[in-house]
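Are you able to produce any protein sequence you like plus the matching backbone structure tokens because I've never seen that pairing?
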Amino acid sequence: MDNVRWVTFLVMLMACISCDANSVDLSKKNITLISNALIQYDRTTLGPTLDLQDNFISNISTNDLQYLPFLTELYLTRNFINKITDSAFLDVGNLTHLELSENNLTSLGNRTFQGLGKLIYLTLSENDISSIADSSFCWMPELQELLLRINKIKMLTNLTFENLNSLQLLNLEYNEISYVPGVVFSPLKNLTKLSLSGSNRIKTIHS
């Protein structure tokens, strides 16, 4: 039995080492399509990190992130992303860290983040987001940090932060928020830091 356990441990260790070794840095490669950039790789062995920062990606589709079971960190900062197809992240359910800052997103749909049940950190700072669909973030019950600073968000609703029971940090600095329902932060039972400073235009919090 001891030999069996030792062999099992070695197999698991080698798998972990293999995943680390197969992390991919594709930053600053003039990439326009994620799917084309990954053609040369065996997707099923990639992980845990995929770095696609500083490229020319404009769209994330449902086919771009398929068959990446070991992926836990995805970096897409400083691209030109203006559209994320519904359920585009459905096949990367082990993702814990997602960076989408400094892109051209203008809205978030109610299925944009479907499948990200293990996500802990999400930054969407420095986009042009003005519209967030109700329940857009509800797919991420483990989320602890959400950064939305420097956008054009004008309004929050009672369902904006639905199901974010684990959230500890929420940054909404430098937006255009003028209306805040009185119960908008009620689902955030573990929130320890909330920032609304900057150019937000909040006059009253409505009950």
The radius of gyration is 19 Å. The mean pLDDT is 89. The first helix runs from residue 2 to 21. The helical segments are 2-21, 34-37.
